[in-house]
Amino acid sequence: MAQYIERPTLLHLCNTLQLEGLSTKKPRITKYTMKPTSSSATSVPSSLSLYRLNGSSGATCILIQTDALLSIQYRDKYNEDKEADTFLPDQMDISGECWEDESRITMSWKGFTVNIYFSKTPGGERWYVNSVDLAYSSSNKLFEHIDRPGLDVKLSTPPGTLLFPTPVGKSYTCDNEVTITMFAQDENDKSGHLAKLYLRELRMQSFMYKAGNAWGPTFQCSATGTYRDETAPIAVGSTLAVATVCTVVGYGLWRYFKVKKFQYGTMA
């Protein structure tokens, strides 16, 4: 008796190819995946990176700990909008300046450079980030089939930026993901790019002047990410006080002239 051998049909072959394609496809790294973990000599969790800038005395001036992702929106030569992502690596070229009321940290990797500028509020009670900018070439290999290669691109936060206001001596801490948006401030910009810097599990401190990685006490970010200006209650209180005085004085003048008019009317 002849043995029956089942021959693969076209449907079987298609299903096999489809399953093989699905099994070998690599997941796309997005803003919602953690960067690859690596061992570290510090006590920082393996998913986080620690960036430090020392002053001329050797003491730490700026300390940043985070899991950061840079995402850049651009257009390719097929006139399609694209998005390119790159993690900020553990090891970067770090430089900067540390002054009494101003400081800057510059972080460079794979053709990208991020500058973060810090300032103190008048009176020196709080520190904050007043600007973040990004520089790179549109010919960077990260961009596939970009429409305009060879451009020197510079993106930054808008003027008047006030991020992470924190009492001096304390470290800003936020478990929520923080997003910093940067775009071209030059009206002659030809790139049309927009960048977003995503900072997760952020801890940051400037104007430290401490040896080693010694953080100051934590200053937790609010749920809404807003900052309550402590001068507002003073201004409101002063306004109410002035309004009260004006009301009392006005009422006194009204009473004075009203009574005086009544007296003159009675005498007549």
Automatic annotation (TrEMBL):
Cellular localisation: Endosome membrane; Membrane
Q: Where are the transmembrane segments?
A: 234-254
Query: What PROSITE patterns has UniProt attached to this entry?
Result: LAMP_3 (PS51407)
Q: Does the keyword Glycoprotein apply?
A: yes
Q: Classify the main location.
A: membrane
Q: Which GO terms describe its biological process?
A: establishment of protein localization to organelle
Gene3D superfamilies linked to this entry? 2.40.160.110
The Lysosome-associated membrane glycoprotein 2-like luminal domain extends over: 50-182
An annotated GO cellular component? plasma membrane
Family label: Belongs to the LAMP family.
Name this polypeptide is given = Lysosome-associated membrane glycoprotein 2-like luminal domain-containing protein
Q: Which organism is it from?
A: Anopheles epiroticus
